[in-house]
Amino acid sequence: MQHRIFLVPHRGDPEVARRHWERRHGDLFTATPRLLGYTQNRPVDQEWDRGTARFCSETWFADRDAEREAYASPYYRDVVTPDEASFLDRDAAWASAVIGDSVPVVAEGIRVLWFDESPPPGASWVALDLARPVPAPGKGKRVHYAMVDGIAEALSLTRGAEVSLVCRSMGFAIPQRSV
C-alpha cells in the first residue's frame, strides 16, 4: 500500500481557499484513477484565526506504480492540477510517503497532527514513519497523530505549537470503478 501525507499552504484569500477545499476539491480528487483512499485533515477555526492553517491530506494507492499512473493520468493533469493551482501554493507543498504497513483508515473526528519527533504527553499518539523529514520547524522523519474528544482538548495539548495542526479529519468515499 502506498500512503502519502501532504501539507500545503493556501493561495489567495484564505476563506475562499478553505471553502473550495472543503466543499469542492474532495469530490474532484476522489475521481482520480487508481485512488483507494483520501482523507482531508481540515484545520479548525482557531488554526485559521492564528494564521497557522495549512491544507493537510492523505492518499492511499495500491502501490507506488498505481500512484505514479494516477498522477500521470489525463484526469489528474487536466482536472485536478488546475483545480489545485487555483487555491493551493503547490510550489510550497511538502509531501512524504508513509513507510510501513498502512491501509486506508478513516479516523473521523478531532485529530491533532504533530510534525516532530517528540509529541507532548497527554494523548495516545500514533507514530507514522516517513520517507522524508517533516517540514521546518519540525524535526525528524516521523509525524504523530492523536484523536481527541474535542477542540478544547486538542488546543490545550498543542498550546499553539508551530509543529502541530488541530483539525477535523474527513474521509471520502472513493467511487467504485470497473477495472
From TrEMBL:
It comes from the Bacteria. One of its GO terms (molecular function) is oxidoreductase activity. Residues 13-90 form the EthD domain. This is EthD domain-containing protein. The lineage of its organism: Bacteria, Bacillati, Actinomycetota, Actinomycetes, Pseudonocardiales.
